[in-house]
Amino acid sequence: MSVVISAKDVGVEFYTSRRRKMQVRDLLFHGRATTSTDTFWALKDISFAITKGEAVGLVGGNGSGKSTLLKTIAGVLLPDTGTVQVDGGVAPLIELTGGFRGELTCRDNLWVQAGLHGLSKAQIEERFEDIVDFAGPQVRAALDRPYRHLSSGMQVRLGFAVISSLDEPIFLVDEVLAVGDKAFREKCYTRMESLLAEGRTLFLVSHSEGDLKRFGTRGLYLRSGELVMDGPMDEVLARYNEDQGTARA
Amino acid sequence: MITRIRAVWRRREILGTLVQRDLRVRYSRSVLGYVWTVLDPLLMASVYFVVFTFIFKAGRVADSPYFLYLLSGLLAWQWFTGSVTDTTKSLIQEARLVRSTNLPREVWVIRCVVAKGVEYVLSLPILVGFVIYYLAVGRVDLDWELLLFPLGMVLQFLLLVGLGLLLAPITVLVTDMQRVVRIFLRFFFYLSPVLYGLQSVPDQLRAVLILNPLNGILSLYRGGLFERSVSWVDVGVSVAMSLLLVVLGFWTFSRLERSVLKEI
């Protein structure tokens, strides 16, 4: 099988010092801050390869670098060391409502959002009904009202509906399943299962063991920015729970 | 740099979508919408006209008709100042979008320049209206240099893209930059030949002011409308400065991109 995501020695360094903002000159001439000592590595020497069609779950406590890793794969964060190579487009189910503007109608927002993620006019036209159907009847009723009139749950529904209708071969999912009511969550599960069945690659971040077991066949376990384990989901979860247990004791 | 430009060009359809969205947001929020685009420069031109012709009685600081001179300058200035203000905060304001979409990040800056540019074009009919009026009363003769008008727009576009790419990432890292830019813009207004012509500036001062890239751009806009011909020295300076800023802008942007993405 072909490798679609490959990370090599990926490291991302954050500044904790308040003085980080003064270092523009350093950044310009050295490409990175040189004087600051108060940094920490959100990710360190991460290497893995994911092949097409795999369903990978990312496991780890708060602040272990899960979201950072996801953003690096999505290309919205650039690694300080190492490289991430992604073959084909990525549909990021991260910050689902980020591209929406409250003043515009839901219809306009849908068009802009889909366009931003690379759908052409004809494609949007074709999928419009499906997207709205997926978002649900309440969203359909509010289609020509300003987006900010929607409840936050509805806003996320529309966001999920748009992004999950993309053709991209890779899907990144970050905790978005936590929102939305039970019925909608079921719908999302079904959508994700059908995406997997089509042979797309899924990369999932979640704290819900149920979600991880349901979708992930392979697990990556991150602890303070380091990849401690890469293996079958059950084993990774067992290891994670063990660690959590000892941490609490 | 060439590869970055190419990457932006490939996504030009998205650029169009974003600009449309910008304009829609802008015009859906206010009742008068388009009127504001032309009302502001029109009112400012009237105020300056009254102050400088009737109160200061400053006869020959610019070409006549003075009102047309003011209006042509102020419309272009509106594009300049609006675009610099918007591009400065372009990455901060759309942080959530920048964080969630993997586009060439330059797009966020360039789209502000284009959106303000479209507004500029939309405001031009008011200039055309006054040109027709002054033609009718015989105070204006158009000449071939009117054809240079689009060249002025291209130059101004390049200048604004360069400035935007330079300022946007710095503003993310140094938040105070927004205030600095606001003050700078107020200064720069009086250092630019919007209210007066460069020819009426004393020699010593002119030696400095001649470096202002807006001289050449405004000269290209006004060449066809007024008797005075386009000053090719000024245009040369504008071309050089604009290109320099574009190169500097792309360079700075790519150097700071990594840190910017972590900050927003």
Q: Could you describe the 3D structure shown?
A:
The complex is a heterodimer of chains A (249) and B (264). Chain A has 249 residues and is α/β, with parallel strands linked by helices. Chain A has a domain of 130 residues: Rossmann fold (3-Layer(aba) Sandwich). A 6-stranded mixed beta sheet of chain A has the order 5-6-7-3-8-9, with helices on both faces. Chain A has a 3-stranded antiparallel beta sheet with strand order 2-1-4. Chain A starts with a strand and ends with a helix. Chain B has one domain. The two termini of chain B are 23 Å apart. Chain B is globular. The relative contact order of chain B is 0.14. By secondary structure, chain B is an all-alpha fold. In chain B, 77% of the residues lie in helices and 0% in strands. Chain B has 12 helices and no strands. The longest helix of chain B is centred in the last third of the chain and has 32 residues. The chains are: A alpha/beta (249), B mainly alpha (264). At the A-B interface, strand 1, helix 1 and helix 3 of A face helix 2, helix 6 and helix 12 of B.
The end-to-end distance of chain B, rounded to whole angstroms, is: 23 Å
Number of distinct beta strands of chain A:
9
Helix- and strand-based class of chain A?
alpha/beta
Largest interface, Cβ cutoff 8 Å:
A-B, 39 and 30 residues
Low-confidence stretches of chain A: none
What is the CATH level 1 assignment of the domain at 3-89 and 206-248 in chain A? Alpha Beta
Major β-sheet strand ordering of chain A: 5-6-7-3-8-9
